[in-house]
Amino acid sequence: MGRTARSTIDGELAANARRLFMSGDVAGGFLDGATAAEVRAANRLLSAELESRDVHRRERPVRRARFPQAESFEGHGCSQVAFPDGYGPADLESLAFLDTAGGFVFHGRTGRGKTHLATAMGVRAVSMGRPVRFHSTARLVMQLERASAEGKLDGALRDATNADLVILDEFGYVPIDVAGARLLFQVVSDCYERRSLVITTNIEFGRWGTVLGDDKLAAAMIDRVVHHSRLVESDGTSHRMDQALMLSGNGS
Length: 252
Known about the structure:
Distance between the termini: 67 Å
Order of helices and strands: HHHEHEHEHHEHEHHEH
Shape: elongated
Number of strands: 6
Radius of gyration: 25 Å
Strand content: 5-15%
Largest sheet: 6 strands, mixed
Helix content: 55-70%
Number of helices: 11
Low-confidence stretches: 237-252
């Protein structure tokens, strides 16, 4: 190996060692006594470690978001989605609302793609380096009640809302007792004007009091939710039913 080639591979190893926070003296001492073959082998090892760390770094926020599965905007047709006047799919996909702690309420019957759309927003946000928390509302309430009983509520609430985007999925699908409703109200209050909140639900606002078991609490929650949120209505046929019919050969 010529001097230029050896200098290049030595430089690559030294740079990789610095990225791994290895001592410069240790790396320099190794290079002084190593053959070219040993340097190449060591550099392959350091490069593999850096690549592995990079993969884990990219995967970590996805795991922390706790998406039920990965979704994309490309997999969701918005033809049956009614957006507010002056707002459309491109505005939603830009995620510009994250910078103003804006939010959305996706309302519609079961199977209309509300969770898909909310998850796609979350996945896009993570890809932009924005932390996300995705929660099944019923499961979140149970987790908070358990944390409260164990004296760990403050930490559980911080974890639930420690993100730029918080998604509460399937609100209203399961009734919530008064204690759970108060905990959920804390989550909404923690998000209010500080981080974006997206709620998917099949329950219109007028029935939130029934779900929460407290009309006054429901009114206070709705007031915080709608202040900086847009209502997006999903209509049409069930996405899951359409897919099932296609798989069974009866979709024509």
